[in-house]
């Protein structure tokens, strides 16, 4: 078969269909970005946050969504679109957007260590003795011209004591006021509770949500685009209502489970020679290993806080 026949695939994917099975499977396992309307809207709001002039009252954002909905994938894409390289060698890197992981122990020194790590500033393991000082953090953030600090897995703060949580909120206020950077918190829905106790912060954080998928046009488009991006040699009839219902039912509308099931089914389709995805391709028990629909609260399924 020659590539000209793979008209069911987008042009950029057609050459991949010519590759051998193992190479195509490697491609299927690789990370990819598939657009969908909720992500577009969150991205627009993130770009607004990024574009706002520095002031004493920066607008911040809290992005919540169930585990596996694609929050980290989305902010990493946001980070990539604003990465700046300076100099011919590209060695000196500005960090207008710093994406850091919230430490499990939400104390100041650990938070600062994570923040510096996200920028690529080496920190010493036993930082209890050499904890980065506030002045160092401020200097580094000013040097890399940080405009937005994204704190992923902010829900970790809820593991701290009430006192630790209070101190953490103070730290956020200090960062925002002292540096005039915008803050973007990312976490599971419970993260909202962490901010509720602080009036000032609550008012300065815009709430957005990546809601679980429902059976509808948006989900069907997402699945179709995802399948298009995979180098299968036969057209895949994946937009049937029966298949959509099965995917939503078995994944609970979670992006992670949906992507995983589709990737596994596609790999099996290459190995079996079927080269296409259809309802039967998802009837193999193996496709669903470890994928379970989480029990979601009704409010979080239906209500989108976007817009
Ligand atoms: N836009 C997308 N395009 C393609 N795949 C995606 C997209 N968003 C998410 N995924 C898939 O879903 C998986 C889970 O996404 P991600 O890790 O971003 O979720 P999360 O919301 O950060 O979860 P957690 O709260 O557990 O950290 C990704 O590894 C990827 O396979
Ligand atoms: Mg994540």
From TrEMBL:
Superkingdom to which the source organism belongs: Bacteria
AAA+ ATPase domain boundaries: 57-207
InterPro entries (UniProt xref): AAA+_ATPase, P-loop_NTPase, TniB
Chain ranges passing through the membrane: none
Pfam families (UniProt xref): TniB
Protein name: Transposase
Organism: Acetobacter pomorum
Organism lineage: Bacteria, Pseudomonadati, Pseudomonadota, Alphaproteobacteria, Acetobacterales
């Amino acid at each position: 078969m020659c590539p000209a026949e793979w008209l069911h695939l987008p042009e950029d994917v057609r050459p991949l269909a010519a590759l051998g099975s193992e190479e195509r499977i490697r491609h299927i396992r690789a990370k990819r970005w598939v657009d969908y309307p909720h992500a577009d809207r969150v991205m627009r709001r993130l770009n607004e946050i990024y574009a706002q002039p520095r002031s004493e009252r920066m607008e911040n954002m809290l992005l919540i969504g169930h585990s596996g909905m694609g929050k980290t994938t989305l902010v990493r894409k946001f980070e990539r679109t604003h990465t700046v390289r300076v100099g011919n060698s590209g060695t000196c890197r500005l960090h207008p957007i710093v994406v850091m992981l919230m430490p499990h122990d939400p104390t100041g020194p650990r938070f600062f260590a994570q923040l510096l790590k996200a920028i690529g500033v080496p920190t010493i393991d036993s930082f209890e003795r050499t904890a980065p000082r506030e002045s160092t953090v401020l200097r580094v953030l000013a040097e890399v011209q940080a405009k937005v600090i994204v704190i992923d897995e902010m829900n970790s703060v809820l593991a701290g004591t009430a006192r630790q949580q209070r101190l953490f909120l103070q730290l956020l206020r200090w960062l925002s006021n002292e540096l005039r950077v915008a803050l973007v918190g990312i976490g599971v829905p419970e993260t909202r509770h962490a901010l509720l106790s602080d009036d000032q912060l609550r008012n300065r954080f815009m709430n957005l949500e990546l809601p679980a998928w429902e059976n509808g046009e948006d989900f069907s488009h997402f699945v179709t685009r995802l399948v298009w991006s995979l180098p299968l040699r036969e057209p895949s009839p994946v937009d049937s209502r029966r298949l959509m219902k099965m995917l939503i039912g078995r994944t609970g509308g979670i992006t992670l489970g949906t992507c995983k099931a589709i990737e596994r089914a596609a790999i099996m389709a290459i190995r079996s020679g079927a080269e296409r995805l259809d309802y039967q391709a998802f009837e193999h028990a193996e496709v669903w290993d470890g994928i379970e629909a989480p029990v979601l609260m009704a409010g979080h399924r239906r209500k989108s806080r976007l817009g």
